[in-house]
Structures are given as C-alpha cells and as structure tokens.
C-alpha cells in the first residue's frame, strides 16, 4: 500500500492516515522514510471505536 501511495504523493498532495498499532508499525514507519513519503503519512496509533467513527464522520463532511 505504501509503495502505491508513493506514486499518488508524487502527483498530488494527498495524505494517508494509518490508524492502529501493532508489530509492523515500526517497519511501516521505516518504509515511509525510505520512500520519502513520511511527510504525507500520519500514524495515529490506536483509537477507540468512537474516535474512529468521529474521524470517518469528519471525512464524510470534508
């Protein structure tokens, strides 16, 4: 996904938000740095179901 998103970032000012924590987070953060897209990828960490619902509502209104 991050490799595909790197192509998107090259053409737009898109931002990707990744919600959640897990064993791969450190690897994914390192991959964003290698791909030079770390300014366009936001790692939000773990969010409650209510917090995720609020984020989705905000996106729908955007």
Give the oligomeric state of the chains in this entry, treating copies of one chain as homo and distinct chains as hetero: single chain
- What is the C-alpha radius of gyration, as a whole number of Å? 13 Å
Distance between the termini: 23 Å
Number of strand segments = 2
Largest sheet: 2 strands, parallel
Order of helices and strands: HEHEH
Approximately how much beta-strand content do the residues carry? 5-15%
Mean of residue pLDDT values: 95
Strand order of the largest sheet: 1-2
Q: pLDDT below 50 for ≥5 consecutive residues: which ranges?
A: none
Helix content: 40-55%
Helices, by number, come to 3
Per the principal axes of the C-alpha atoms, what is the gross shape?
flat
Structural class label: alpha+beta
């Amino acid at each position: 996904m991050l490799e595909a998103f790197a192509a998107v970032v090259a053409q737009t000012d898109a931002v990707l938000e990744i919600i959640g924590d897990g064993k791969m987070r450190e690897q994914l953060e390192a991959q964003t740095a290698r791909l030079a897209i770390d300014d366009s990828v936001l790692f939000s960490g773990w969010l409650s179901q209510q917090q995720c619902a609020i984020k989705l509502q905000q996106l729908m209104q955007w």
